[in-house]
Amino acid sequence: MSEYRIQGATGEWEVVIGLEVHAQITSKAKLFSGAATDFGAEPNSQVSLVDAAMPGMLPVLNGECVRQAVRTGMAIEAQINAWSRFDRKNYFYADLPQGYQISQLYHPIVGEGRLMISLDEKDADAETKEIGIERIHIEQDAGKLMHDQHPTQSYVDLNRSGVALMEIVSKPDMRSPAEAGAYVKKLRSILRYVGSCDGNMEEGSMRADVNVSVRKPGDAFGTRTETKNVNSVRYVMQTIEIEANRQVDVLEAGGTIVQETRLFDPDKNETRSMRSKEDAHDYRYFPDPDLLPLVLDDQFLADCRASLPELPDAKRRRYEGDLGLTAYAAAVLTAEAETARWFEALMEACGDQAMAKAASNWLISDLFGALNRLGMDIEDSPVSPAQGAELLKLVADGTLSGSLAKQVFEIMLETGDDPAKIVEEKGLKQTSDTGAIESVIAGILDANAEKVAQYKDGKEALFGFFVGQTMKAMQGKANPQVVNELLKKALA
Fold first, then answer.
1. Whole-model pTM above 0.85?
2. Potential cystine with 197: which of 23, 69, 92, 362 (Cβ 3.0-4.6 Å)?
3. What are the backbone dihedrals phi and psi of residue 296, each rounded to the nearest 5 degrees, phi first?
């Protein structure tokens, strides 16, 4: 798809990329306890006895987390494993009170799947690429160490301890920062459509561990490094570029790449070594003795599949095929689940599929432009889909011209009033009264006799001048089509 190469002193190098995305599962409770998971809560205010690993506490699996993981697997066309098992990953750290993390190493709930990406979703003819997904497993998050609260001590916040995560592990199929960026965007979009994760990377509910290695094109895979907890699409792309170039420099200087865990520092624009990379045997994995294997029946799986919404790729094809939208418009409208839902509500309120192009143009140009200006998201729009549909209908039936509709829209943004009310109160209704328009045209032609003569002598570009003068005289309220017809007749 993308011929991304690093030019080194010894020739070209190819980058090999795999991503492990940690997505916080949408649930009001943690994976094995009933503690809340609200973002921004006071430290240690959402910690149950299970999360704090008090003696005698036993985990109880949250069924909603299982359901969301299965639905996510189905959305990426993955193998759903009806039998899966939880394992203990043993290590000691201050933010892990149990001394182990409950995860699924050997028998994950979701097996192999795939994700189709495009470097330009807005181009119908853009090349696509399939990225393999190796697995999705469920695991609990650890707590967090806070190093900036005291000059000599670190504090521990256990609010995230036990929060349910899906770890979505890709195959090493990406070959450029752009492909990795497209993969994260597409995965985030699907998670938000499905409703299994809110995708808020800035809040830490979705983050990526970035695996990077380099090789001469056609050679075997090189030694990889893993850069932990990268929390934006832009940072994922930066991490790959920086780390790949670092590895090339090391190899060309005669050094070797160490398999290790690294950290991305956006302020210094570098990756730094954290620790040597552990293998599975270092964690002494074994089946969790407190949890039975997870067995999913056919009815549960059928219910999960039936609950899936129309996903972005299918929705985009429908918008292009059934509604006749351009590839660009369809891509913009389906990129985010919230935008697609708003457009669907707008079309439902319009009640006419033939209005799809006008509706999409208005949403993408007028509404998005206004929201960007106001610094708002579409969920916070001061104009509702029903009000947007009412405005579009007033244009379609000739009550409003395009310019008058823009005036009404600005007032809607300020007041929240319905367009029909604004039209009535402000007297903004478009007129198609031929008598009134003919009278204005006659006055303009009399006042511009010289230009009339020039027009009749062949200077046809002046026609636009007469249209403009007529619309100005009628304060933009004249029906442009009627104005054009009557002017042609008067100038004939």
1. yes
2. 23
3. -105, 130
Q: 367 vs 274, 326, 409, CA distance in Å?
A: 46, 18, 9
Looking at the structure of the chain, the number of domains it has is: 3
Give the residue numbers spanning the domain of 447.
434-491
Q: What is the pLDDT of residue 281?
A: 66
Let me know if 279 is exposed, middle or buried by CB neighbors in 10 A (0-12, 13-18, 19+).
exposed
Q: Give residue 355's pLDDT.
A: 96
318 and 263 assigned to the same domain:
no
The answer to whether residues 256 and 315 belong to one domain is no
DSSP codes of every residue in 155-207: EEE-TTTT-EEEEEEE-S-B-SHHHHHHHHHHHHHHHHHHTS----GGGTSEE
The pLDDT, as a whole number, for residue 456 is 80
Residue indicated by tokens 């000599």: 152
Q: 184 and 79, same structural domain? A: yes
Identity of residue 293? P
Q: What is the C-alpha to C-alpha distance for residues 398 and 433, in angstroms, rounded to an integer?
A: 12
Same domain, 364 and 439: no
Residue predicted with more confidence, 125 or 294: 294
Would you give the DSSP letter of residue 362?
A: I
Compute the CA torsion angle 117, 119, 125, 128 (nearest 10 deg). -30
Residue 233 CA to residue 126 CA, distance in Å, equals 21
CA distance 230 to 239: 8
Q: Which residue has the tokens 């592990």?
A: 169
Statement to judge: residues 279 and 330 lie in one domain: no
**What's the CA gap between 150 and 142, in Å, rounded?**
21
Q: Could you tell me if 326 and 438 lie in one domain?
A: no
CB proximity list for 307: less than 8 A, separation 6 or greater? 71
